[in-house]
Every structure is written in C-alpha cells, then in structure tokens.
Design brief:
Structural class: mainly beta
InterPro entries: Pyridox_Oxase-rel (IPR024747), Split_barrel_FMN-bd (IPR012349)
Distance between the termini: 11 Å
CATH class: Mainly Beta
CATH superfamily: Electron Transport, Fmn-binding Protein, Chain A
Organism: Streptomyces broussonetiae
Pfam families: Pyridox_ox_2
Protein name: Pyridoxamine 5'-phosphate oxidase family protein
Strand content: over 45%
Length: 137
Amino acid sequence: MTVNGTSELDHAQCLALLGACRYGRVVFTDQALPVVVPVSCLLDRDGVVIGGCDDRRLDRLRDGDVVVFQADRASEAGDVTESVTVTGYTHSIHDAHEIDRIIGLAVDGYWCPKADEKIMSIGLTIVDGRRYLRAAG
C-alpha cells in the first residue's frame, strides 16, 4: 500500500478502535530479544484483556512487566487503515468470576479462553494511534 497521508487518532478514537478489534499482537522481550505473539483481545474498563490461546510464550510474562499491544483495522474498501498501540503494565487475571465476566463481554463468542489459558490485562498507560490513507492510483 502506498501511503498518501497519515493523521493521529485522538484518545477516544484509539479506544473505539481497541473496542472493535478482536485480535492483535503483544510485544515483549525475553532474554533481551523481541517476542511478538498474536492474541485474542477485548477492551475492558481500564485495560486491554489478552489471551494467547495455546501460545505458551505468554507464560513468560509476569505481573508488572511492560509490554506493547498493537492492533489495526482496514476499511472494507481498503483505502484506510487505522492502527493503535498501547504500552502498559501487565496484570494476570485468575479469579474465576472475573474471567466469566470477561468472557461475557466477548461478542459473538469469538473468544472463549481454555481452562489453562493465561489471561492478562494490559494497562492503558500510553495509548496512541494513526490513520493511514492509501494513495489513489
């Protein structure tokens, strides 16, 4: 895609994009090397809740780790792509009632964590986003 222009998304637009995304990527380091893990996600209260399905690389994360979460969405026509990035601290979710509440937020059953799946929240410490416009042609 040849980019014709970009613009920043404001905080409300970033949150709206996060609320609409079902999947994204979480980025962290392991032994000083970058790790990128595709995850299921949803926006909840003051964080992005992630689950990694069967990806055991998320087991390396501990409460308080700093991570980056990134998600994007393209328009149906493909002429606009929006991307949002969240930098924040992780917090593991273990409480069964809290997990049930979060599962209840997932629309259309797109995410149903397995019993042994690691579920974490990423705080919205830094949130920014951009809109990319495809050049005509």
